[in-house]
Amino acid sequence: MGTALVYHEDMTATRLLWDDPECEIECPERLTAALDGLRQRGLEERCLCLSACEASEEELGLVHSPEYIALVQKTQTLDKEELHALSKQYNAVYFHPDTFHCARLAAGAALQLVDAVLTGAVHNGLALVRPPGHHSQRAAANGFCVFNNVALAAKHAKQKYGLQRILIVDWDVHHGQGIQYIFNDDPSVLYFSWHRYEHGSFWPFLPESDADAVGQGQGQGFTVNLPWNQVGMGNADYLAAFLHVLLPLAFEFDPELVLVSAGFDSAIGDPEGQMQATPECFAHLTQLLQVLAGGRICAVLEGGYHLESLAQSVCMMVQTLLGDPTPPLLGLMVPCQSALESIQSVQTAQTPYWTSLQQNVAPVLSSSTHSPEERSLRLLGESPTCAVAEDSLSPLLDQLCLRPAPPICTAVASTVPGAALCLPPGVLHQEGSVLREETEAWARLHKSRFQDEDLATLGKILCLLDGIMDGQIRNAIATTTALATAATLDVLIQRCLARRAQRRILWLNIRGKDAAIQSMFHFSTPLPQTTGGFLSLILGLVLPLAYGFQPDMVLMALGPAHGLQNAQAALLAAMLRSPVGGRILAVVEEESIRLLARSLAQALHGETPPSLGPFSKATPEEIQALMFLKARLEARWKLLQVAAPPP
Ligand code: Q9C
Ligand code: ZN
């Protein structure tokens, strides 16, 4: 089980044959740049490489009219002048004698990827294709798109595999209006798109790209548009959109498959998008999606016109699909005012259809003083405008490091015998230990708390901590006796801080206590009992805080009577991996480890966590407790903001 990469060299054949500044950016080098990037970083060889085959006419007929298919077929025999004349009948389209072949390969690649994932041959995958697809309609080419690859993939998944809930995440910077039209009244396909909109003044200039287009008939609430009304949106804006809009709806929808219209013109440097999100952001977006649909993700390339930025972003996505930890996100984690307004407009439009949003309505508390331009200054040093961002791009991208994944993925040190823990394959027992004298020195800080037999465990746990900090181990689980738990955590934190000044540790102490706020860095909340409440806690509070804090390490402490169910612990661990690059040390009191070890280890190891069960709405008390915390913490942690006052 791994990651599929679907490609065919023939898809580099189609290219613009006449002068057209609008269309020239959709060039064959887009594919070769992306593929070269994957090769250079050794990512291609880690994938199951599938050679794309043409979609059949019957398959194309799942979305397109026979007349339109015949028309595109006919372009094979047209000369340059005829191709040019036909192209002009559509908006931002060019035809080439190889267009029909390439577009059939692109559609076929998307279908093959769905087959590979739904037959269980792979977990997930990416189809590297051109022409792109999301603007294409039943009987029209549009915006460089000829056949709608992702819409075809969704229809295919429904028809051949009987899927009933498919999520399409369109992170291309343009609105995939083609996908929206095709599934407008279909409640089995949830279509989410964010796009440069600028109040309708950006291509394709459609009123139906705005947030109030929610789908029609049975499909109401299954079209989710998030229009960006300014350029310069960056990592924090994209994350806020995922945490506060897409993921709450996606969990409630509970998809069986996630299709990604993976356009990278929403990344920094792209001439079309003019946005500021760095390539690493796509690693994070990908990992956040991996908790859905059992990890079944099929990504299909759409746009992306800055070759270097495109290649970097594709690599980020593929390495995350392969299971590598996420690289750190650069930049202040502060969404801009305009992004908050856009997010609020989608929430307002979608609230009638989604329980998860109904429980999320926040009081209007404060307004962001950040404009996208201001933030881009910080990110790019001296550049005052987007135009200059181009110059600053190369050094920025050069800094981007693809760190090797740690040799050991997940390790365990336990007071409980290994056999009792039912650990999944690939999870290693920690045998190493720091020196006995060193362990004793640390234990002396809390003499009364460590029994003699605890010392051996403490030595192993300290060794795990070192392994994580040094990058030898990605993450780990340690168990302690009830008596030693608090002291162990104290020693871990002291040691962590002693090893390097200004290390940031996110300490999550789960033990069943009341809500309280001691400071912007120290607070607690009761554990929600409903699935809706629990998801709000993770998406609306824990992850925004974790991303704002940008910790080097997460200590997840599960004390006696922590009250966390297996699926909850697994989801929390799985999602916390993103903001911390996987570096989690879970310390579990031995009473509950027998029950928890397996699912916790699976989640840390990268497996998709089990379902929390049917969606249940948060209780008024749960909502109140979360709002209480958010209201007080958002002054410091700006990713908590979900609402903004009108301008
Ligand atoms: N400057 C895709 O990314 N031109 N298509 C817009 C605005 C058309 C984009 C002009 C852009 C089509 C798949
Ligand atoms: Zn695009």
Which helices and strands appear, and what pairs or packs with what?
Elements lengths: L2 E5 L21 H12 L7 E4 L5 H4 L5 H9 L5 H8 L11 H20 L5 E4 L21 H13 L4 E5 L6 H6 L6 E8 L26 E6 L6 H19 L3 E6 L16 H11 L7 E5 L5 H15 L15 H14 L4 H4 L13 H9 L5 H14 L8 E6 L13 E3 L6 H9 L7 H19 L2 E8 L4 H15 L5 E6 L5 E4 L2 E3 L6 H19 L3 E6 L7 H11 L7 E6 H16 L14 H14 L14
Parallel strand pairs: 1-2, 1-3, 3-8, 4-5, 4-7, 5-6, 7-8, 9-10, 9-11, 11-16, 12-15, 15-16
Antiparallel strand pairs: 13-14
Helix pairs in contact: 1-10, 5-6, 8-9, 8-11, 8-18, 9-10, 15-16, 16-17, 18-19, 18-21, 19-20
The protein binds N-{4-[(3-aminopropyl)amino]butyl}acetamide and zinc ion.
The site of N-{4-[(3-aminopropyl)amino]butyl}acetamide (Q9C) has 15 residues, from loops.
How is this structure best described in words?
- The chain is an alpha/beta fold.
- The chain folds into 2 domains: 3-333 and 372-398, Histone deacetylase domain (Arginase, Chain A), CATH 3.40.800; 408-640, Histone deacetylase domain (Arginase, Chain A, 3-Layer(aba) Sandwich).
- Helix content is 40%, strand content 13%.
- It has 21 helices and 16 strands.
- The strands form 3 sheets. It has an 8-stranded parallel sheet, with helices on both faces.
- Helix 18 (531-549) runs parallel beside helix 21.
